[in-house]
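User: Please fill in residues for this 335-position structure.
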């Protein structure tokens, strides 16, 4: 660490028993950034101006200029904010996926005006629901925020999108988290430039090839794409290969941009005792693959497994029949 004051302390990181190595950090114009991105590998891009115009985004500024829109806020009884797909919850509730399949939502999704969110954040005390604002940036925000948004370094983002053959930008999500909040390990089917604006977040990533160590929920499940392993209390009897997981980690701070490649697993936590954090992410669809080359890449195999699961779920209807059919198909036959 250079002689500048260290901004965080390892005691602020949650303790996990996972084999981790550091994610590389390079200056935004270092050619190694594109080298890693072209191999679908994560990298921290330093000193870019991607969100430089948002450096002034503190809570007072946001309260003043974010407008009067309703924002999506998740409430959790603990530090985890595990994502669930509302559409898949509905399918379970109207019996589309077999009989008596239970699902309890781990968090509550509410609409909140920003002043109310900020008030609850400031007045939070132990025992209260934790809060996490996760809102797509849209035209309900005030003109100052629009101006700051337009002043993001879009040339940089567009150049990465073009150079690495990404599809269109789908979302910029504004994330305002309480200290200690955790988004548990999951993967997304989009490329992601994860731009940290305020505070520090610890990111733990695993390549798509570690699919068998991270035990994702079945595709029909509302927690599709999320790992079934609770990093705080891993059940090694149920998930023995989690012991073999080998990940990459980094702590991102203001101005850092972490490239999270499509299909890469990531667990993200706002440092404990580090105050609130503010992030804007840039999600891009993947681009059309010009030509298929063999052997297939690890993330392509994940996409194939997802399609097989979806097809089997559609024809078998009851998810409890998918496992036995796959076991019959494989055991003893494909060694
Ligand atoms: C809604 C999830 C946001 C983020 C996780 C986090 O910063 O807590 C993430 O997973 C992503 O950007 O893909
Ligand atoms: Zn994600």
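Assistant: Residues filled in for all 335 positions:
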């Amino acid at each position: 660490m250079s002689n500048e004051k260290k901004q965080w302390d390892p005691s602020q990181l949650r303790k996990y028993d996972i084999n981790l190595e550091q994610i590389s950090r390079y200056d935004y114009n270092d050619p190694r950034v594109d080298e890693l991105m072209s191999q679908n590998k994560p990298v921290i891009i330093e000193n870019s101006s991607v969100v430089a115009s948002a450096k002034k985004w503190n809570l007072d500024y946001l309260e003043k200029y974010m407008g009067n829109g309703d924002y999506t806020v998740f409430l959790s009884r603990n530090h985890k904010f595990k994502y669930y797909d509302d559409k898949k919850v509905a399918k379970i509730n109207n019996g589309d996926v077999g009989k008596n399949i239970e699902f309890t939502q781990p968090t509550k999704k509410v609409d909140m005006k920003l002043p109310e969110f900020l008030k609850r954040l400031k007045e939070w005390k132990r025992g209260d629901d934790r809060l996490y604002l996760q809102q797509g940036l849209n035209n309900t925000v005030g003109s100052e925020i629009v101006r700051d948004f337009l002043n993001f370094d879009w040339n940089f983002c567009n150049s990465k999108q073009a150079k690495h053959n990404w599809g269109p930008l789908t979302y910029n999500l504004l994330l305002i988290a309480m200290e200690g909040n955790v988004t548990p390990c999951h993967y997304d089917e989009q490329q992601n430039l994860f731009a940290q604006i305020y505070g520090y977040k610890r990111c733990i990533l695993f390549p798509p090839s570690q699919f068998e160590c991270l035990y994702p929920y079945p595709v029909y499940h509302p927690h599709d794409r999320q790992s079934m392993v609770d990093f705080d209390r891993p059940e090694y009897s149920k998930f023995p290969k989690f012991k073999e997981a080998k990940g990459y980690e980094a702590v991102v701070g203001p101005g850092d941009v972490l490239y999270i490649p499509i299909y890469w697993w990531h667990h993200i936590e706002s440092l404990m005792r580090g105050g609130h954090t503010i992030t804007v992410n840039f999600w891009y669809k993947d681009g059309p693959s010009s030509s298929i080359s063999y052997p297939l890449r690890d993330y392509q195999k994940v996409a194939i497994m997802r399609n097989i699961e979806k097809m089997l779920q559609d024809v078998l209807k009851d998810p409890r029949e998918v496992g036995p059919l796959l076991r019959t198909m494989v055991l003893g036959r494909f060694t």
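For context: The longest strand covers residues 166-177.
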